[in-house]
Amino acid sequence: MPPESVVAEPIDPAICSTHELVACHECDALHRRVHLQRGASAHCVRCGAVLFKHLHYGIERPLALALAALGLFLITHAFPFLSLKIEGIFEENVVTSGVLALWNAGMPDLAILVGLTSVLFPLITIIGLLWLLIPLSLGVKAIGAGIVYRTMHAVGPWSLLAVFMLGVLVAFVKLVDLATVVPGVSLFAFAALMIVATAANASFRAEFIWDPDADRQRWPVAVDQLQSGAAAAGLLGCHVCTALTPIAAAQHRHKCHRCGTPLHEFRKTNSLVRCWALVISAVILLFPANLYPVMTVIQLGRGEPSTILSGVAQLLEAGAIGLATVVFVASVVVPVVKIILLIYLLISVQRRSPWRAAERTRLYRLTEVVGAWSMVDIFLVGVLSALVKLQALATIEPGIGASYFGAVVVMTMFAAHSFDPRLIWDHAVRPAQ
To answer: With contact defined as beta carbons under 8 Å apart, do 72 and 194 qualify?
Structure first.
């Protein structure tokens, strides 16, 4: 039977236990756990968010992929990444060379950002998977499972292997006319790591942590469109594992009974205030990010500063129209559009607008998906700064614009994470009578 989306009967939270219910993480609508056919996916009827997809395999696949990812990670950091040859000069680097180059150039902020998102956070995610899955394969629950899963949940959006790989491809195109670029073993291992790590995360089901017999349990596929949500039913939803806790129990325990995440309020604390502060900061930083050079190319003693837009123009001149389009969209269009969308969402929530709540939720979903791709220019600067050190022939130095642009990316990502999409629905759905 082909995969399908399933909708079931309305529910009454008064006659269901919290174990039988789950709330949509984007609109707070309550769902009952019912049987889900193999290959089917469960979507929230109210906002369309994916609640669960039935996978026919257990922990064996994510465990095998996580082990493979760890092996590829070690290979990636043990061999040369890229090499550059010109006029008898040979320059070789490794994956972390960009981090060191940015640090030595007096930009520790960018060095830390690149190191965290391309090295440390991906490693934490891989080790976290193994920490949770290896004990489960032996029939026991991992020690500190709640802490490990919370850590993975926090750093997961900041693990940017695919974005780093795109930055490497752009750097490759920029260097073709300058010198001979030789890909190393590490580059191919990194490409494989990107694919395998993504597959490991996609095949991992957090439910196995809390219920090893998850395949024989019932999964959420029903929503009552008349219910205003978990908050109206007096239930607090965990932001990490989605478990529901009655407000009385939450006031007594103050932590999620399943993963240990602190429970404070029905909505993220000061969500709108924090999001406004971060968005305004991003708007201010956006101007110097686009006006100042992100890097300076020095050839035969002459420097040529390059801003984000001039870098796009150079790709167009080199005939790389596809990559130029990707960089322009990721580095110019995405940050601006993301800021505009967040401002629109903030204003609509503050005005208590009930208009097209489902569409506004999808817009928020879009800001979360595309935001990290703006990091491509930061990774590009790191790769080029580390690789192009050809003495008097050519060098590339990072510019102050890269620091401002990195701050813009971080601010917009934090802003999207601080916004609570359930606020969109608080004034869009009336409580059931």
So the answer is: no
* DSSP label at residue 105: T
**Residue (of 224, 209, 206, 216) closest to 35 by Cα position:** 216
Residues 400/403/404/410 CA torsion (nearest 10 deg): 170
Residues 414, 199 contacting (CB under 8 angstroms): no
Residues 6+ apart with CB under 8 A from 136: 59, 142, 208, 209, 212
Helices and strands (DSSP H and E) totals, the chain: 17, 15
Quickly tell me which residue has 């240990």 as its tokens.
260
What distance in Å separates the CA atoms of residue 71 and residue 242, rounded to the nearest whole number?
32
CA distance 125 to 156: 7
- Report helix, strand or coil for 184: coil
Alpha carbons 186 and 70: distance in angstroms, whole number: 14
- Per-residue model confidence as pLDDT tens digits over 238-267: 878 778 888 776 666 678 877 888 877 778
Distance CA 191, CA 182 (A): 15
Q: What is the pLDDT of residues 287-311, one digit of tens each?
A: 999 999 988 876 655 667 888 888 8
How far CA 390 is from CA of 111, 169, 338, in Å, comes to 21, 20, 38
| Stated pTM of the model | 0.85
Q: Which residues on neighbouring strands pair with residue 34, listed in sequence order?
A: 219
